[in-house]
Amino acid sequence: MILKALCDYYDALADRGDVVPPGWSEAKVSFALDIDEHGTLRGVIPLKVLPDGGKREAPQSVQVPEQVKKSSGIASNFLCENSSYFLGIDNKGKPERSRQCFEAAKTLHHEILDGTDCAAARAVLAFFDGWQPESAADDPVLAPYLDEIVKGANLIFSVGGAYAQDDPDIRAAWEDHRASASEGSAVGRCLVTGQLGPVARLHPAIKGVRDAQSSGASLVSFNAAAFESYGHEGKETGQGLNSPVSEEAAFKYGAALNRLVGDREHTQYIGDTAVIYWAEDAEPKYQDVFDCAVLGGRHDTISEGTLQSAVRALASGSPADVNGIPLDPKNNFYVLGLAPNAARLSVRFFLQNTFGRMMTNVQAHYDRLLIVRPAYVENGTLPLWRLLNETVNPNSRDKKASPSMAGAVVRAVLTDGPYPVSLLEQTMLRIRAEQNVTYGRAAILKAFFLKNREFKVPEEVLKVELNEESSHLSYVLGRLFAVLERVQSAANPGINATIKDKYFNSACATPATIFPLLTKLSQSHLRKLDGGLKTYYEKMIGDLEGRIHETLPARMPLADQGTFYLGYYHQVQKFFEKKDKGGNENV
What we know:
By secondary structure, the protein is α+β, with helices and mostly antiparallel strands. Among the domains are: 17-181, no CATH class; 469-587, no CATH class. The protein is built from 20 helices and 18 strands. A four-stranded mixed sheet has the order 3-2-5-6, covered by helices on one side. A four-stranded antiparallel sheet has the order 11-12-15-16, with helices on both faces. The radius of gyration is 32 Å and the shape is elongated. The chain starts with a helix and ends with a strand.
């Protein structure tokens, strides 16, 4: 299903003219070797460019012949390689291996270009025949760029002011080489297209996933007998025929996935997982809206008002117009989570639905998260990365949420499923560790209990603002603790530590033991207050204690601890509530 969706995406990109044709790929190239018609190196052309908004130059993306899948062995690419293959030198201290790489590149280019009668082909072959790797380091033409070139930068050839791979005769020679290479391939029915064709023995490498191998990692691969199917044993047959995918389909999904991963504007990371997403028709504006609405991305072309209007329209099943681009709620949309796993990629999740249904689920998620927020929180939305950060220890070296929990949360949000219990557990753990119910953590607790109804938390305590009429025991106790803390602070201005620092966790977990002590302490604090303030707090404490109609529990379960935190948070926000000039409450 994943490969089929990626192949369809490739076809949609091809219809838009936004993707390289089969047999070609995009490569990051730093320099072009400028050679004359006799193959003599005349200069080095820097190709690095300054990305939009970037501060450092980066290699330029250039269309080159499809590159081979590298391993520890020696295998040359055609017309695009590093200095080991094109110059016979590098900075790895292995001159003999560099010489072997150069000879491999020379052999490959003769194999493909021998018999091709054009100036560019003759120049490239003459370069390989005349170049002397042993004197390359002393070449004055290379000297200004040598240090950077030998670090592994990709190189291409320029002949007469044009790239060699753009020459029509060279392109035709490359296509003929590809066709002949497929002649000996096993033929089978492709699991992706259902058509008969040459089966890909090796699948394309996917480059750019953070913490995966820089040379590329495999989405599909078989490299041990344990993974081979009966009758498909051995290196030559087992690697591809275990799950037959045609060479054409393998190229398409590889090209599409590499394009998606390489699109930094539309690739976000949640923990160790690269989240990539695309619309079936390849319209990038769907990606922009999803990125802003779900992952907290920022796109200058989409204002907050436009985004909210578009999400509401799509969630209701109506088309939306975003900067002149019509978005159809019925258009299929895909979200793929990839994580590094040695030389391979692990699929954390793969979700598909119509874009309108996904926006409906996202809107429902944000509605559940809605809760009164402190005045200093300007934007009350909690994109996924911020939500998950609420579960992370701020003092830890690795400030990433649990990968399995992060994937489960993404799945829950986009499918409108129940949140993972680990989200509740991790949020509660951070509250206990820091003794701090932040806006984000309170929002998570509210959303979790609203969606996961098996915890049987009454909806009367899951409101946006304080519910002063609720008599739910744990909620009332949370409110009472906030009031007692407030009384202590009022009686002792500038106090360094309050009852929260000493008793917050124990009051939540074992109220029968702690609250009698807190009530006793509050009496001494109340005696320090003047008449009006004392009466105000006595009345508030009396009202809350009057709502307790049962014996305080010796120990509260997890759900009741969560409602205790919500009661505490709601009451604290009520204390800081102010009125604007019109008399309306403004938090």
